[in-house]
């Protein structure tokens, strides 16, 4: 423990290149999980030095699920991805990003205990065990990587997400209760997700995350898996209250595809309806959306106005046409948004 008793180490000089001479930028809190949050962080780290990621902790599949089950820790996978997204585009940043994302693969015919574990997950859990504090462990990991911002869990305990999946079987409607993020994502392929909830229902939110939201200039929610990465932030009571009370301006970033595993048959407006259904008191200032995913622009603008905000249309996807956000295009849209009064 003596090794960790002092202040956090200085970030190596190579990891600080590229940001000198620029102002700190607005204080931004980005919420989500997985690839969606990685996309927003990759854009936002180009615009501000005051960036905080608040990450879902309900993952129970793959490497994260195994570590959560075996060690009783927060699932580290989405936290790892957020840290990797905050790495600089320098030799130091790219190297540590690749180290964090590296997965072990056992040789053919061998089922090793490290198979499919991500190196970053093991590093994060090691820091947690040595320090006994998830927030401090993530701070140390961020310092090692030279991360442009900090990463926080949304809750201080692991969460379980469950929901009802509605499907039609032999002409009759079947309602199946599915518990666990991994199982829910798979079940959503055969039906519509409804009545999503978090367990424990009144789990404590991370206090550092609540403080960051209170002090932020902007809060950015999404993109990401709508029911399992975006919505959970509005299902946790303390976090939802903080998001509704903050004086920060609120931006909801839409996905580049409406028809995902979790949202089959849903329109862009349906996505907004889900947010309003579970958190009717949550209002937005801006909804950022690629025009390609909205059919009736006027109807979408009216739906956004019903949530208290305005729609901003911007081409934010990669040029290949795949439903993947382009960091530079997304950064341009965020920069324009932040510059408005």
Automatic annotation (TrEMBL):
Known function: Required for morphogenesis under gluconeogenic growth conditions.
Subcellular location: Cytoplasm
GO CC terms, sorted: cytoplasm
NCBIfam families for the chain: CofD_related (TIGR01826)
InterPro entries noted in UniProt: CofD, CofD-like_dom_sf, Gluconeogen_factor
Region Disordered, residue ranges: 1-30
Organism name: Arthrobacter bussei
Origin: domain of life: Bacteria
Similarity section: Belongs to the gluconeogenesis factor family.
Name this polypeptide is given: Putative gluconeogenesis factor
Entry keywords, A to Z: Cytoplasm
GO biological-process terms attached to the record: regulation of cell shape
Molecular function via GO: LPPG:FO 2-phospho-L-lactate transferase activity
Gene3D superfamilies according to UniProt: CofD-like domains
HAMAP family for this protein: Gluconeogen_factor
């Amino acid at each position: 423990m003596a090794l960790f008793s002092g202040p956090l180490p200085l970030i190596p000089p190579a990891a600080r290149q590229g940001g000198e001479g620029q102002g700190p930028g607005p204080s931004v809190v980005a919420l989500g999980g997985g690839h969606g949050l990685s996309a927003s962080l990759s854009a936002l780290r180009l615009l501000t030095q005051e960036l905080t990621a608040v990450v879902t902790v309900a993952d129970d599949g793959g490497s994260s699920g195994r570590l959560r089950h075996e060690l009783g820790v927060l699932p580290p996978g989405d936290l790892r991805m957020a840290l990797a997204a905050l790495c600089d585009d320098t030799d130091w940043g790219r190297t540590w990003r690749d180290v964090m994302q590296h997965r072990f693969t056992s040789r053919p015919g061998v089922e090793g205990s490290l198979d499919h574990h991500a190196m970053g997950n093991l590093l994060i859990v090691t820091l947690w065990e040595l320090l006994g504090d998830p927030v401090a462990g993530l701070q140390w990991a961020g310092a090692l990587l030279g991360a442009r911002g900090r990463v926080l869990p949304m809750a201080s305990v692991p969460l379980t997400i469950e929901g009802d999946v509605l499907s039609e079987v032999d002409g009759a409607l079947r309602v199946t209760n599915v518990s666990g993020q991994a199982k829910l994502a798979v079940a959503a392929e055969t039906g519509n997700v409804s009545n999503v909830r978090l367990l424990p229902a009144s789990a404590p939110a991370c206090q550092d995350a609540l403080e960051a939201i209170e002090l932020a200039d902007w809060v950015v929610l999404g993109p990401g898996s709508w029911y399992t990465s975006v919505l959970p932030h509005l299902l946790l009571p303390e976090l939802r209250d903080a998001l509704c009370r903050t004086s920060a301006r609120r931006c909801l970033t839409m996905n580049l595809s409406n028809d995902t595993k979790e949202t089959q048959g849903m329109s862009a407006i349906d996505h907004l309806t889900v947010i309003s259904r579970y958190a009717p008191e949550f209002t937005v200032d801006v909804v950022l959306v690629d025009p390609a995913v909205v059919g009736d622009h006027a109807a979408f603008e009216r739906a956004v106005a019903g949530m208290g905000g305005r729609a901003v249309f911007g081409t934010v996807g990669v040029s290949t046409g795949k439903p993947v956000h382009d960091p530079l295009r997304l950064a341009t849209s965020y920069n324009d948004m932040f510059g408005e009064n």
